[in-house]
Every structure is written in C-alpha cells, then in structure tokens.
Write a structure and sequence with these properties.
The structure is a single chain. The chain has 517 residues and is of the alpha+beta class. The chain is built from 13 helices and 26 strands. Strands 1-2-3-6-5-4 form a six-stranded antiparallel β-barrel. A six-stranded antiparallel β-barrel has the order 7-8-9-12-11-10. Strands 14, 15, 16, 17, 18 and 19 form a six-stranded antiparallel beta sheet that branches. A hairpin with a 4-residue loop joins strand 5 (146-155) and strand 6 (160-164). The chain is globular, with a radius of gyration of 34 Å.
Length: 517
C-alpha cells in the first residue's frame, strides 16, 4: 500500500536514513581499541603501538627529504663557499725571546692568530696585535705548507698589519665592493683556540659599532653573531658569495677591554673591508698611513647633558636640539673645518649622509679617509638672530692628521730627550740613503744620553720596537709609548720604557727611556 492508499488523516512515520558511521567511529574505535589493549595487553602493547606510529612518521619524513630537500641546496652552497674561501685563509705563528725589561730570560714565547692572502704578490693581512711583538713570523697555508713571513708594516690605531710571504702558488681572496647590511649571512674563518682553518656562520647584527677597546683609536666595526674566539683574530669575514667583507678582530667583553680578551658571547667584531683596503694599500706602498683631519673637538650630547653647570650657549643648544649627533666644542683656526665654516656650537649630524652616532664614529669616518679627499658634513645650527634652527650642508676638503696631533704628550716626551727629529723609514727613504730597508722610525738627529735616556741614540739609527711590540712608523712609536706609559712600572716611582734600536752599523741594541711619575 502506498501513502495514497492510506486512509485519510493517517500516515506512516518517516524514519530518517542512517548516515554511515565509519568516519565518526574511527577515533572512538581507536580509543576503544587502546582501552581494550591496555586492559588485555597492558602497557607493553601500548608502547608497541606508539613505536609503530613513530616509525611510520620517520619513514614518511625520510621519503619527503629524499624527494625534495631544500637543506641540500644550503649544504651545497656552504660547501662551495668553504672551498672558495679556505685556500686564501692562513694561520699565523709568531715567536720571540722572553725578556724581563732588558734582561733575556733565555726562553721564547710563541703566539698565533689568523690572516688571509691579500694579493698575488704575497701580501698577507692580519691584525697588528697578532704580529706586533714577533721577531719571527711563519704563515701556514691551507695545504699545510709553512712559509717564513716578513713584517711589512702596521697601523696600531686601527689594528691592521701586513706581512709578506713568497708569492708562488697563492690564492688571493676575492674582496667585496658592497657594503654589508644588517641581517646579511656571514661566515668567519680562522683558527679559534688553534683549531686551524675553522669556519663559523651567523648574520650581521649591526654596523658602525664602537666597543671602547683600549688600544684602538679608530673603531667602525661590523658586529656579527658568528662564533669568533681567540685565534680568529686576523681571519677573513666573508659574504654569501665568498667575498671578504671584513676581518675578525675582537670580541666584545666590555668597555676598556684589550683586543682579543675573553671568549665568544654572541658579539664578534670585524673591521670593514673598505677600511682595511685604505690602510693596507698605504702600508704596502709607503709603510705608513696618512689619515684625514677636520680640526674640530667634539663632545657627546649625553656627556653634555650630564654636566651640572653648562655655559648658556650649550644650554640653549640642548634645549632646542632633539636627535642624534655630536656637539662641536672647538674649531681649530686655519684647519679644514674652520676654512669651510664650521663653528663652535654646531651639532654634526651626518658625514657623507651617514648619521653620526658618537664621537668615535666621527673619528673613524674622518680618520680613515685619505687627506685631500672631500667629505660632506650636515650640521644643525641655531640662528641667534632669527631664533630658528638651520640645517647646513657643506663640503670639506680634509687635511692630514699629524702623529704629534694625535699623541701630543708622547711627541713632547721624545722631544725632551732629544728625539724630536724623527721620520718613518720608508723603502723610498732607504733607497735615497743607500740603506737596507726595514720597518721602523729613522732618527734624524742624535739623542744624547742623559737622566731620562740611558744611552745615546745616534743619528741614522732605526727605532723598531717599544718593549716587545714592533714599530713601523712614527704614529706606531707614539702609540706604543703611550701604551707602555700606561702599563709599565718601575722601582721608586719610575717607569722604564724599553726601545729596540738598530744602530747605523746594523747592531741591534736596547735603550731605556726613564720617566718619573
């Protein structure tokens, strides 16, 4: 009987069709099975089931990795990068006699660091603190071959040095022309803790960093988080194309620390390649580095704000200026900044479009440019007449930073003992005087023995060491004496600074410079 056959007013109840239950019962069934398994088989069966599920996940992951693994591409790239860079990396070993003052202790010290091949002529770049105290230097290539090296020159204030080895069968590093950017991947090479020809990776954490390192006057570091440890000093820092963008130099361990102190804690510091090229090319050519000079004195704005009593001009500037920069406290008459129109009370905001963050940053940007080059300064100045701020942009042709300007006290000290007539002993100067060239400072006028100078230093002598540290130019000499003044102690309140001197007859001797406290 159909529904139409049913008596009027009556109908059969409609029963809804049942939906398939297999999809809904799946999880419930698994839970039930596991529950029964626990009751019947106990924990051992559960562990076996979990193991089977884990094994299935491993097999599935293995299949996906075997089919298309993007990490293989990364592995291949970093292997290629290592193959390209490592042949240009060297291990630098140094050796010298142990001394206590002028007395030989009969033994030898050894130390080591890293470096990299700069050019096909055999010049190797490293840190000045790696090779400065050495009397003998050896360079080990990535092949294991060891070659003797000759010290060419160093710039103590930037911690850059050049040595030279025989030029056969060398692979010079490729250098980058591009500025690194924060976030770029980088790779550090060297010999950390004497684990030779090691490689680590990371990113550029920051740029234009200063760390307040005791020995350095020019700091403009690349900050990286690639592992850098003692022994990495002097090794190259490369980009993702295997081009050198910097040189591993220091580990940030706090203001006033010494170069190379401490161990890696996430902050490695590298000298940028542009700064390296400026210094190295001059060291190879002349043995010394000419640095740019503005002729201004500067104060950090935070230091100015911390002063209790400020002159009215400084107070007005601080009240009206809000931003980054450094305060120009003095302009030296007749020097480039004065000629261009910089005034005391100006705030230096940028150099060649790069924002000024600190006094050290300005010193590095200016000091590591060649004299006679032009830089563009952006200044903030308060117009007293109109009572409005002005932004002034000017081009300034840099002068030359004389060593005695950088180290006036040390220059005066040497002048007092008769060593006022000094010059860097360059290869060209040696040729003119028919002398064999060696890095050092030529004494132009005899310094007589006296209360402060233990022995006379004849004209024509070459000063090539202060204490254990080598000297290759006049600025090095001043910087080494300054360091010795800070660290050397003698009896009865006397400081004794030891000078290594090569006499005109070619005899190596030691002369003591005595200074009262």
């Amino acid at each position: 009987m159909t529904s139409s056959d049913s008596p009027q007013g009556t109908s059969k109840p409609v029963i809804p069709a049942r939906k398939p239950t297999s999809g809904l019962l799946g999880p419930s069934l698994v839970v039930a099975v596991i529950g029964v398994a626990v009751l019947i088989g106990g924990p051992a069966l559960v562990r076996n089931l979990e193991f089977a599920r884990e094994q299935a996940r491993i097999e599935l992951a293995s299949e996906r990795l075997a089919l298309d693994n993007p990490l293989d591409v990364l592995n291949s790239a970093t292997r290629d990068l290592a193959a390209k860079v490592e042949p240009s990396v060297v291990h630098v070993s140094t050796r010298g006699p142990l001394r206590n003052g002028g007395t030989s202790l009969g033994g030898f010290y050894t130390s080591s660091g890293s470096g990299w091949i700069y050019d096909a002529a055999g010049h190797v770049v490293t840190n000045a603190h790696v090779v400065a105290p050495a009397e003998t230097i050896e360079v080990q290539l990535s092949t294991g071959e060891i070659r003797p090296a000759r010290f060419i020159g160093a710039d103590v204030r930037s911690d850059i040095a050049v040595v030279r080895i025989s030029p056969e069968r060398l692979h010079p590093a490729e250098r980058s022309n591009e500025l690194p950017q924060q976030g770029d991947f980088v790779f550090a090479f060297g010999s950390p803790f004497d684990f030779r020809f090691s490689m680590s990776s990371g990113i550029v954490s920051g740029l234009s960093r200063t760390a307040g390192i005791a020995e350095l006057d020019f700091e403009n570091f690349i900050q990286v988080d690639a592992a850098v440890n003692p022994g990495n000093s002097g090794g190259p820092l490369s980009d993702v194309s295997g081009r050198v963008i910097g040189m591993n130099t220091a580990i940030a361990t706090g203001r006033g620390a010494n170069v190379g102190d401490g161990q890696f804690a996430g902050i490695g510091l590298a000298i940028p390649i542009r700064m390296i090229e400026l210094v190295v090319d001059q060291l190879i050519e002349t043995g010394e580095v000419s640095k740019g000079y503005l002729g201004i004195q500067m104060i950090e704005l935070d230091d100015l704000r911390s002063m209790r009593l400020l002159p009215p001009q400084e107070e007005r500037v601080l009240e009206r200026f809000d931003g980054l920069g450094v305060y120009v406290s003095m302009v030296e008459q007749g020097f480039p900044a004065d000629t261009a129109g910089v005034r005391p009370g100006d705030i230096l905001v940028s150099v060649d479009g790069v924002p000024v963050k600190s006094v050290d940053n300005v010193r590095a940007q200016i000091g590591l440019r060649k004299p006679d080059t032009s830089v563009q300064l952006e200044l903030w100045r308060w117009d007293e007449d109109a009572e409005v701020p002005r932004t002034i942009v000017m081009d300034v042709q840099l002068g030359r930073l004389a060593p005695e300007v950088s180290h006036p006290q040390q220059a005066l000290l040497l002048e007092q003992v008769g060593l006022g007539e000094l010059t860097t002993f360059t290869p060209a100067l040696a040729a003119r005087r028919s002398m064999n060239w060696t890095p050092g400072v030529l004494v132009l006028e005899e310094a007589p023995a006296g209360p402060m100078l233990g022995d006379a230093i004849p004209a024509g002598s070459i000063i090539d060491q202060v204490g254990r540290d080598s000297v290759s130019n006049v600025e090095d000499l001043y910087a080494r004496i300054k360091k010795a003044q800070q660290t050397s102690r003698g009896r009865a309140g006397e400081r004794a600074i030891e000078l290594g001197v090569l006499t005109p007859e070619g005899v190596a001797t030691r002369v003591f410079l005595r200074i009262r406290r």
